[in-house]
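pasting for ref
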Amino acid sequence: MITLYSYPELFGVADNNGYGLKVFAFLKLTGVPFIHQHVFDASAAPRGQLPYIVDDGETIGDSGAIIAHLIERNGLSIDAGLIQAQRDTGHLITRMLDDLYWVMSYSRWKDEQFWPAFRDALLRQHPSLTEENLRKAKEFNSQRYHYQGIGRFAPAAAYARGTEDLQVLANLIPEDTFLYGPKPTSIDAAIYGFIANVYFYPIDTPLKQFVTSHANLVRHCRAIHAAIGGSHAATA
């Protein structure tokens, strides 16, 4: 049995981090059985980053590597119909989502306008956390943002960068299907991992405003959410 280790749920989604939710959605869409273990401490993870899986004693980190491993190990056909140009576009989207991650994270941990609401939501849903835990995490993330670069942006400039990424997705996602047709592929799981962590976020960040104003992004997110058995407890 596969065990997925990822951050805890929040705001009605199974993982409050885009990468872990991406893997969770992929596993659900492909029907691969797994156990989901929520953790806050990433020190045991490969390279100290969540998510990771343990599959028959083998530990694999990095969401992309996890999905590639699962496809090969289980002979999954979710991406079998994609042509090379579609695979290339998926690769580019995946790299763009890496950029969007930093803006999404910035909106939660860095921007003082939205940080208190995020902190309070974590404390409500996860009583094992303390304000001191979150203060230290906030300081740690502030250092990460500074060295990565997004922490040197003023909020308006940071969100402009994020909405540029979201605009690309809005341009690419059809109005009534998944990215490449009526059935989702692994790239749809990746897109969901990040959009769901914006759309179901009940705080009106500029990222949330952008997503909710684009019907195709909302429809895509909710379609994957329903397909993987997600709860709509948190709504836009």
